[in-house]
């Protein structure tokens, strides 16, 4: 008998909006932010809940391991809270470029994590950011809109 996912958990699955240029056309595409499923719970997870979570199709293993489950804390928790505050769909950030051609974030996902930007591609309107999560360094592309280009 297949167990239903627990009701006490909130499953957060973040997607990011990217604009892909194909054959001269710009298409909007949704891609996952992390290859993780984030489960938020107010209480300790009992054995029945653990079994139910393992039945979720996208489930692979718990953070650290299935025998040593580690709750998020510190920088990992702050990063997830940053994305939870934005919502499940991460759209484009509004940016401009200063006189030294450095990116200045006005609003959006990149706001507050400007120090993590490692590369900017103005033509594709993407910023590559470097984040550390669960002891592993990840890079991801997030889209932006240059407000000066819109005018």
TrEMBL record:
InterPro entries: Rib_uL2_dom2 (IPR014722), Ribosomal_uL24_CS (IPR005825), Translation_prot_SH3-like_sf (IPR008991). One of its GO terms (cellular component) is ribosome. This is Transcriptional antiterminator NusG. GO terms for biological process: translation. GO terms for molecular function: structural constituent of ribosome.
């Amino acid at each position: 008998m297949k167990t239903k996912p627990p009701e006490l958990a909130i499953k957060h699955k973040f997607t990011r909006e990217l604009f892909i240029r194909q054959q001269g056309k710009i298409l909007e595409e949704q891609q996952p932010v992390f290859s993780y499923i984030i489960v938020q719970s107010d209480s300790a997870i009992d054995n029945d809940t653990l079994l139910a979570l393992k039945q979720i199709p996208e489930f692979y293993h718990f953070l650290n391991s299935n025998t040593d489950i580690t709750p998020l804390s510190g920088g990992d928790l702050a990063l997830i809270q940053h994305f939870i505050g934005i919502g499940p769909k991460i759209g484009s950030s509004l940016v401009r470029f200063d006189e030294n051609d450095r990116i200045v974030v006005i609003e959006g996902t990149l706001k507050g994590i400007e120090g993590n930007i490692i590369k900017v591609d103005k033509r594709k309107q993407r910023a590559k950011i470097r984040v550390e999560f669960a002891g592993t360094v990840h890079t991801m592309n997030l889209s932006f809109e240059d407000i000066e280009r819109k005018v």
